[in-house]
Model the fold of this input.
Amino acid sequence: MKLTPFIAAAVFSCTASLAFADPVLVVNSANTADISDEAAAKIFLRQVKTFPDGSPATPVNQKESPVTEAFRTQVLKKNASQLKAYWAQQVFTGGGKPPSELDGDDAVLKYVAETPGGVGYVESGKTRSGVRVIKR
Done:
């Protein structure tokens, strides 16, 4: 087939973008808490509702993207189907619901800058005033 090279190129470009996604955690600039990957996972899985220093945490996810996939696998240690099953169980048992989803880095940065307990993830190198990047 003549389309085979094009399909292979498309698949490679999609997987390559996943390999290069490098998420970093961002918090409101007023937040001085240090957050490990383990603490971040507990916040995003709603297992805890506060940062390690006791201040309230309000996590926000991004809609599906390469940085979302990278965050899910590197920090949450779950693939898409595992995370979907986790949230289905949490909702069914009354354990909670997933964090809100925003569309892209700019929306997450805006939310975190305007929300005192805001925490999200963006592609490495993205920033704006009002947020503090927590390096991974």
In short: The radius of gyration is 16 Å. Residues 21-134 form a domain with the D-Maltodextrin-Binding Protein; domain 2 fold (CATH 3.40.190.10). The helical segments are 4-20, 37-44, 66-76, 80-93, 105-114. The longest strand covers residues 23-28.
